[in-house]
């Protein structure tokens, strides 16, 4: 075997071990300490990804930016089939994508100067519902990230919220 073949083999082997174990490795680099190792962003591509069960309720609050008055409260189930609506409640990437869909829909209907805030309570593995998304964030001003974490997604919700 050449050195290039050996390097490729060990690189491949390293990737096969580190990618599935990244949820444990990410625990040490979490910005708020160890956090919850069963949180959403760490279980992608993991061997144990099906060990996590989550049920949630997500409400999108559309409000007037000038007065702060709530214009409407909507759930994803008003627009999506039940399986899709359930996925929106469990996935932070789906939450922001659905909020952007609502934003485009409202702008197309002529609405202006509005914001969208989200209340998302998720019950993970039967531990009881907890707030998983910062309810003060306006999703019309948030970018969609393909890679990385959103700062508004809490792995371990603050106890005072």
List the helices and strands and how they pair.
Elements: H1 3-18, H2 22-27, E1 54-64, E2 70-75, H3 82-90, H4 92-108, E3 114-124, E4 129-131
Antiparallel strand pairs: 1-2, 1-3, 3-4
Helix pairs in contact: 3-4
When the domains are counted, the total is: 2
Overall 3D geometry? elongated
Quote the average pLDDT: 80
**Beginning-to-end CA distance, first to last residue:** 59 Å
Order of helices and strands: HHEEHHEE
SS field, number of helical segments: 4
Structural class based on helices, strands and sheet pairing:
alpha+beta
Helicity level: 25-40%
Task: Tell me the strand percentage band.
Answer: 15-25%
The biggest beta sheet reads: 4 strands, antiparallel
Report strand order across the widest sheet.
2-1-3-4
The parts where pLDDT drops under 50 for at least 5 residues are 33-38
The radius of gyration computed from the alpha-carbon positions, rounded to a whole number of angstroms, is 19 Å
């Amino acid at each position: 075997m050449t050195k290039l073949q050996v390097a490729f083999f060990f690189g491949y082997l390293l990737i096969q071990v580190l990618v599935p174990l990244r949820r444990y490795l990410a625990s040490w680099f979490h910005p708020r300490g160890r956090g919850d190792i069963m949180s959403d962003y760490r279980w992608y591509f993991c061997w144990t990804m099906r060990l996590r069960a989550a049920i949630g309720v997500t409400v999108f609050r559309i409000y007037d930016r000038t007065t702060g008055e709530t214009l409407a409260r909507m759930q994803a189930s008003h627009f999506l089939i039940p399986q899709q609506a359930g996925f929106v409640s469990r996935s932070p990437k789906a939450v922001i994508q659905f909020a952007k869909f609502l934003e485009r829909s409202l702008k197309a209907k002529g609405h202006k100067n509005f914001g969208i805030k989200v209340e998302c309570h998720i019950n993970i593995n039967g531990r009881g519902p907890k707030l998983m998304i910062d309810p003060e964030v306006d999703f019309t001003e948030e970018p969609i990230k393909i890679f990385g974490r959103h700062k508004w997604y809490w792995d371990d919700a603050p106890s005072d919220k």
